[in-house]
Amino acid sequence: MDQIAKLIAAMTLEEKIGQLTMASGGYAVTGPEVSADISADVRAGRVGALLNLWGAEAVRAIQRTAVADSRLGIPLLIGLDVLHGHRTIFPIPLGEACAFDPELWTATAGAAAAEAARDGVSMVFAPMLDVARDPRWGRISEGAGEDPYVAGEFAKAKVRGFQGEDLALPDAVAATAKHFCAYGAALAGRDYASADVSERTLREVYLPPFAAALGAGCAAVMPAFMDLSGVPMTAHHALLRGWLRGEQRFEGVIVSDYNAIAELLRHGVAANLCEAAALALAAGVDIDMMSDGFRKGLPQALAEGRVSVEDINASVRRVLTLKQRLGLFDDAFRRKGGDDREPAEAARESVRELALTAAQRSIVVLTNDGVLPLPAGLGKIAVIGPLADARREMDGPWAMAADRDDCVTILEGLKGALPGTEIVFAEGVAIDGEEESRIAAALEICRGADIVLLCLGEAAAMSGEAASRACLGLPGRQEALARAAFSLGKPVVALLSSGRPLTLPWLFERASAAVATWFLGTEVGNAIADVLTGRFNPVGRLPVTWPRAVGQIPIFYAARPSGRPFDPIDPYTSKYLDCSVEPQFYFGHGLSYSRFALSNFAALQQRVGIGDVIRLSVDVVNEGSIEGEATVFLFARDIVASVARPVLELKRFAKIALGAGERDVLDFDFPAAELSFPGLDLQPCFEPGAFEFSVGFSANPKALMTLRLEVVAGI
Ligand code: GLC
Fold first, then answer.
1. Entry pTM
2. What's the CATH architecture for 364-539?
3. Which mutation among 257, 259, 288, 290 tests ligand 1's pocket best, with the greatest number of atoms within 8 A of CB?
4. Number of Cβ atoms within 10 Å of the Cβ of 353
């Protein structure tokens, strides 16, 4: 009998349910707080995992209670939301996705894991893999945008980074793919609201990123709060037991979201905690995060035969197996600081360098009339707006362990980068609120300035969880400040700090340049200064379609064609009477200081079989005067199939660095089998026929190079 079987055999029912219970350490509040004496619960074996606790000393103390004072000495899982950094903060995931750089995504996850592990954390509630096509939803900031392929690449990269080669290594933490699934399809973009998604869209869009995470060995999964077409994900037997544990053969841990088991009563699918606990356990949930549902409901559920001892033992086994894989039974104190690891300070410096790189690569230049990069020798720059020196906003949402005073603000970064330039600052207006009295003073400092930098956007708390917005303009009186600045007739560069695309057509029309700076974390000021001055040639590209108006939402490039696709000369086609159907910016949009062009897009084969690898190539040239990095997207379209297929589907993206005037060839090789899709019976199917392949710098259909290829069933 193995160690885990022996443990389970020795455990009382209360101790078994304790291993299925995660309580809060109280260092951060990420949901309805339930206070309790954690040590007593741990000592009695009533809690097997904690969240929202970090710091080597604090974790060592509570771990010692578990290992030395409890009857069976089972170590604790210590979980925390390490979504984009731990002590050192990287760009929010929506920002980092703009880099289209899996190596970077892995590196930042690895650095965050090491910092978190040094603080005793062994499990992170990340990566967040919810495909999001509705920027009203504040949690769009936490994921990799609108595209399932990008989210899948993001998933694999992040799981690799967090978990490393071996979960038992001291810098490795268990990753949690969340929030399973289709959470980003919340009705009207309102967080926690129902999502009504077809089985087809589930399989085409929302499930693939989770399949990718599981394929990369992700240790845990967290179901989403909401109901999916009436079935709360926390009790979704078909998707948890059926797809996750059945089709995907996932043997890892399923941890509920915060209080989600108890919230099955509010969903109206359970009359009491006994029913809620039974539903969740039967669906496959192993750990109850903070609802006390398992502790209060499972004994009665067992007594009433709603669950079996075998069900409980199976969950306990999965939790103990994860602890074993993490090396916690061998050494519960393995994840800690202390002098046997690289000194924290030296590690911090190398992580800050990575934070700068990540921030630089996440910045997207949306418009530029030539004002950027800023010319050398500027005499005076006026920096105005509420995000210019907003130190405590720059980390964005989900940065609990960060020292928010640690970040370099935009204003500080500019001053550091331009010591010979007079840089004056005035906030003008607050991020939110109706006060306009300081706008005049802000305009005053702009007089005599060569250029105005407008630092606008959202507060950190205006995106992330429970932060949906119905209107996606600038909060407060920022628009009044911006319009006043535009009235000066000077070059104005708008820097947008936000957790989502903002609908600002009036600003994009008037600004000399507009830059999406998201929330870039610790090195925000230095990264923005590097891009504005040209020290870093921007490479960021949008992982989401940027709407012109809220009325266009949901808006995304991979839409189905419709029987009446928009045609400007035919009124009976899909359109609005009062708004363009075009987005403000397409998926993949982003400007460089170089100028790239594509040519000679070609397929190596004219006909390929389903078992072949499709080989395509395209020439890329840098026609600009400075070296830069282009991002090239490869899309496919199944022209005729048994199901209406999207007009474009991203199959690959690639980066290529080119010197001024340099030309190179970019090859795309991918298995023809990736052209399969959920057929009429929703099972994966491949249908031979003509396919269109397109390459471009974005999903803008007017700027794609396209070729056709016959793909046949067998060659
Ligand atoms: C929150 C979030 C989830 C997070 C968890 C623990 O409510 O929905 O993303 O991991 O609680 O903080």
1. 0.97
2. 3-Layer(aba) Sandwich (3.40)
3. 257
4. 12
